[in-house]
């Protein structure tokens, strides 16, 4: 009879401890590159600033050319869609 009560008390203590304990964190404590939203690229940040009106078109084109490592004339923006000069073909992604 004593063994029976010892088992019941042990189970009760274990259950209370299991439910009273906060859940342990799942996975690594620090975020990995695959977690959360990706950080915006410099080109995306620049496009957002242009869209909000923080910079004008000339400044946008000049900074975009700088980001792309080009010494293009900011007064010759290319085709007007991407900021690429007309002589530089666009990359095609399949």
Give me some keywords for this one.
3 helices, mainly alpha, 0% strand, 94 residues
Helix content: 40-55%
β-sheet strand percentage:
under 5%
Order of H and E elements: HHH
Mean pLDDT: 76
Rg value: 30 Å
The number of distinct helices, counting runs of at least 4 residues, comes to: 3
Shape: rod-shaped
Structure description:
By secondary structure, the chain is mainly α. Helix content is 44%, strand content 0%. It contains three helices and no strands. It has helices spanning 2-20, 42-52, 57-67. Helix 2 (42-52) packs antiparallel against helix 3 (57-67). The longest helix has 19 residues, at 2-20.
Fold blueprint:
Blueprint: H1 2-20, H2 42-52, H3 57-67
Characterize this entry briefly.
The chain is mostly helical and 94 residues long. It is built from 3 helices and no strands. The longest helix has 19 residues, at 2-20.
């Amino acid at each position: 009879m004593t063994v029976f009560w010892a088992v019941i008390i042990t189970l009760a203590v274990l259950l209370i401890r299991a439910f009273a304990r906060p859940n342990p964190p799942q996975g690594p404590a620090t975020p990995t590159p695959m977690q959360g939203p990706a950080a915006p690229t410099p080109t995306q940040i620049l496009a957002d600033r242009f869209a909000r009106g923080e910079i004008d078109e000339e400044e946008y084109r000049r900074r975009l050319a700088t980001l792309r490592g080009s010494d293009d004339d900011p007064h010759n923006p290319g085709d007007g869609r991407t900021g690429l000069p007309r002589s530089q073909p666009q990359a095609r992604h399949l």
